[in-house]
Amino acid sequence: MVFYRNPHALTLQSCALVCKDWYYYTWFHLRRRVLLRDRNDVLALCRTLRETPRVSSIVQQVTISGHRSLALAQHLGTFAAMLAGKLPGLSRITIRDTEWTVGSIRMQVFNCLTTFRSVHTLHLNGVTVPSIAHLARIISALPGLRKLSCCYVDCSQEYPVSLAPLPLNSAYLEELEAQWVAPEIEDLLVRISQASRVRVLDLGLGGDRGPDSPGSRSQDVLDACAASLEVLRLHMDPYSSVDSQDIDSIVVTEQHYNLSRHERLWRLEIYYPSNPFVHWSWILPIISRTASKHLIAMSVAFRIPADRTAYIWDRALTMMKEGGFLVQLDDILQTEHFANIALRNICLGFYYQDWLRHEKPFGIKSTLREQCTRWDELIRRSMPGCNGRGILTTTHTYGEYENWAINMDAIHEEAQGRKAETGGEAQ
């Protein structure tokens, strides 16, 4: 059993070494996130709960990971049976890196999962399901589910497939994530979106399962959420192999994405992988088709690995100077659809957590802090309209970007509160 992926784990481990009292308090914090890799891990967690009952209310997130379908089926079933009703604080279940086969999960497992009423988030990553009916069944098994996340989820059933019954809890879903899933998975997510009122959508674009691939229904997922969607995050494929010579085909492909019907949208976020100079042309068509009068915040952020930060940063700055992207973006943001953007509500930046510790990367004469200054100056010089309105802000780390997002939530919540008090229109 591994106590897993706590972002402050190293700090907590250091605190645990200070004295016995500190060890006692940090011990519980380190057990909020648990990774179960096999049946022995599940048994170890059960033993911990018997020896220290208080841990049952501490565990908030459980990740069930496997590399063979049989192994996963065994310890998913063991987890569901042995811990049913024993983790009252559990809010998120993640299942990753496995392939299910027909009959590998018995019906009793789904029945046991119904006792996890506190779970509001299910995240599937790198999972292959035997049929859409199996996926719908595991979704239905969690009565308190409010967020469903599917990343790199495939289906071994041949496409097209017959319609499976909708999950019983579809109407209560509020957040949906669909990143590079099989077409038959997208079909189910479209139907779920039509039956619910999804407020937050994370959608993966591009790559082998982009809109140009056979059977892709990315725009259908967007349209199914149009009446209720408030926050949209678009994620470009981090494994895309497209190079600069294919930009024209990308722009044509991107015509599939249209946000003109999303009238309740108040925040649009676009995330890019480590090749920003490849994908810039995707942004402008998407933003130009955004017509929501409620839109008050927008961001474009690049996620960069620390070992390539300096190289990519330098390439992106060069591309922006020569390509005129920022000038075109500035023109788009002066249209009436973006009149409600408030101060510092347009965020453009790169981020990678803790990358600023690399002061003098190999092959770059200037420090990364100097690169940040170049980035800020280029943005403001190339976007005089937005800069004059004071709506621009830039970020250079994940922490800065996260703080910007938190501030946007606070601004939106405050605005909704004022509308409620005055009897105005609220989302």
UniProtKB/TrEMBL annotation:
- Record-linked InterPro entries: LRR_dom_sf (IPR032675)
What is the species listed in this Swiss-Prot or TrEMBL entry? Rhodofomes roseus
The protein's matches in SUPFAM superfamilies, at most eight in alphabetical order, are given as: RNI-like
Protein name as annotated: Uncharacterized protein
